Amino acid sequence: MKNLLITILTIAVFLSFPLKELNGSQAESGFDPGRLELGNSRQVLVVLAQERGMSRAEAYAWEINAGGKWESSFGPLKAVIGRKGLAPAGDKREGDGRTPSGIFPLGFAFGYGPSAPTRLPYRRAESDSIWVDDASSPNYNRWTTRGATRASSFEFMKRKDGQYRFGVVIEYNMNPVISGRGSAIFLHVWRGPDKPTAGCVALSEPDVLKILGWLDPALNPVVFLGASCR
């Protein structure tokens, strides 16, 4: 826990600048992903809320180039997060409407079709595919099928509104899973630029597809979820 707090504080220092300084034409503005504790990741998707309590955000893609230096791949992209903004590190709870802060691996992609335009591992959502949000269930914060669990609370992964037509699992609270600390945190298609999520990160479908096409599992991609200093 101490190391986690140190990491978050370090991140906060390096992200204390306006969002406008992060566009592609200003990639050398002082933001240096190499100074963050990203382990062996060579791709990072930076998602910055305009303020901690706000749901509007912007996303930026960074990757280590052939010369071994971080460079901007694209961004900013308009995004939305939880309806109650960001939860401070360690404070996210099930059903609180907040997006967790921190650095998390990006796992498998998912969607409604037989495949998606991505190099990530892909899982197709079927009519009985669910993600469990029942904190008392042994299947908590896991993808499973309706007939394979006794969980009393879950969401269908093949939604009628199309928000999960394309998505990526943000591996928050997954290794290990801690009961009640939050579940089903994804990057997915938004309902609109002014429609917050229950805790996920959402963008327009073209932008989700752009991110899917960029992500490379060989580069151990991660996402950073934080707040900008305005």
Q: Name the overall outline.
A: globular
User: Helicity level, as a percent range?
Assistant: 10-25%
- Please count the beta strands (DSSP E, at least 2 residues each): 14
How does the helix and strand content classify structurally?
mainly beta
Largest sheet: 9 strands, mixed
For the residues shown, what is the average pLDDT? 87
Listing every helix as H and every strand as E from the N terminus to the C terminus, the arrangement reads HEEEEEEEEEEEEEHE
Total number of helices: 2
Poorly predicted runs are: 1-30
Rg, alpha carbons: 17 Å
Assess the beta-strand content as a share of residues. 25-35%
Give the terminus-to-terminus CA distance.
Answer: 28 Å
Q: How many domains would you count in the coordinates? A: 1
Report on the architecture of this protein.
This protein has one domain. The chain has helices spanning 2-14, 205-214, and strands at residues 43-49, 56-64, 70-80, 86-87, 99-100, 102-111, 122-124, 129-132, 143-145, 154-156, 166-170, 186-189, 201-203, 222-227. The chain has two helices and 14 strands; from the N terminus they run αβββββββββββββαβ. The two termini are 28 Å apart. Strands 1, 2, 3, 6, 7, 11, 12, 13 and 14 form a nine-stranded mixed beta sheet that branches. Helix content is 10%, strand content 31%. It is globular and about 50 Å long. It has 230 residues and is mostly beta strands. β1 and β2 form a beta hairpin.
